[in-house]
Write a structure and sequence with these properties.
Blueprint (H helix, E strand, L loop, with lengths): L18 H18 L8 H19 L7 E11 L6 E4 L6 H16 L8 E12 L19 E5 L8 E7 L8 E3 L2 E4 L4 E4 L4 E4 L5 E4 L4
Parallel strand pairs: 5-7
Antiparallel strand pairs: 1-2, 1-3, 4-5, 6-9, 7-8, 9-10
Helix pairs in contact: 1-2
Length: 218
Amino acid sequence: MMKGQRRPGNGFDLSEAPSHLIRRCQQFYGDLYAREAGGKELTKQQFTLLCALEQNAAADLRVDGISTDAQQLTRHVDARYVGQEFALTLPAEAGASPASIVERFHAEHERTFGHAAPSAPVEFVGVRVVAVGLRPTDEMTRELPDSPGEAVGRRLVHFELGAEPVETTIYERATLGRGQVIEGPAILQQIDTTTVVPPGDRAEVQSSGAIVMAWGDE
């Protein structure tokens, strides 16, 4: 039997199914549900398929060198009232029951469209799994001065409408050193932008050259 086809009494086997076959299987499964359940009751087979898709996605990530602890897998189902042409996509986290998904669908339908029909039958018309592999990245670094940059001047600056101007220290951004902390009030000027550090706040220069602002007592 070709991998990805339905096996009687044993759900689906997607262990060797290519991605295009998985997508076809999802569509087939939605059609199968419409025929077997007819919108009158929910079937647990769709959740079996979600598990199979999740396992297949995790295996693909492992082949790509992504360890299990660096994987992020999210499961969703597309649900609608029987007879509707559109569906809402809802999270289907591990352990969620079909009944809990239906309750969530009613609430989301109410939130999205302003009405719901809790007594109306609900059907699942699609299932999906999104798999993300997280890879470590080297910290971005940039050549920066080792010593702190000196102020290049001072000027009076208005920080609040109607308030008195405040004497403010001026720095050239390019001269700031790695790890340098600038206490506000200050202005960091460069050719393409100006960074304002209000009174009581501070800015810190990162190894990447980025500036991280901290407000007040942060």
